[in-house]
Amino acid sequence: MKMPGCAVRSTRCAERRASAHGALRTAHLFLILAMAACTRDQWQRFPSPDDVVAKVPWFATMHHGLAIQPYAIPSRPPVPGTVPTTGAAPELHIDNDAELAQLNRMRNPAARTSESLDRGQQLFTIYCYPCHGVAGQGDGPIAAKFVAPPSLTAAQARRYSDGYLYALIRYGRGIMPPYGDKVRGDDRWHLVNYLRLLQDTRK
Ligand code: HEC
Known about the structure:
This protein has helices at about 10-35, 40-45, 50-55, 60-65, 95-105, 115-130, 155-160, 160-170, 185-200. The chain is mainly α.
């Protein structure tokens, strides 16, 4: 280290240099000890100036006020078996033979009206188009980077029952992700109607 105003070989200079080195080393040591002594947990428990100020009741209004905590976990989760006020759809999976038979017997409760098809198209464009493409031919923008899914208008997809399609949308299949958490209730059936429309328009 070059000390200011030092002739290169003077002994006083060498002493000053040595003591400067010593001071630096001590500072490093302190820093390392301080870091090692203070865990993340301790750091978080360290009182913040806000905590001290809030001891004065007049200043504590903000601290104890009723604030909306959007990520707070509800203190009382619903009891097991609770169903949404809109009713619950029974769990029926395509990989269980008995449930599959039940699915195959299901009738689409949503009539194929233009409203249903519009809603189906809207959902298809949001959730399905990225992989399956506009007309369900497996050529969506993601398919090239992911896996090209089978055509939704080919013989195989036509043979599926409405209930099967419903469950496939709800739970996914193979590498197709489930959409039941996003597409809910009758919306799943509107999507089924729209899949049938895609099949009918591509005879
Ligand atoms: C991330 C890409 C992706 C998205 C998004 C996606 N799928 Fe799929 N889908 C696939 C893949 C991959 C398969 C093939 C799955 C398999 O091999 O079991 C598939 C299979 C299917 C099949 C069965 C086709 C057949 O011939 O067996 C249907 C029906 C289907 N998807 C409908 C939908 C609908 C409706 C949506 C929107 C809610 C959707 N998919 C969203 C990737 C996707």
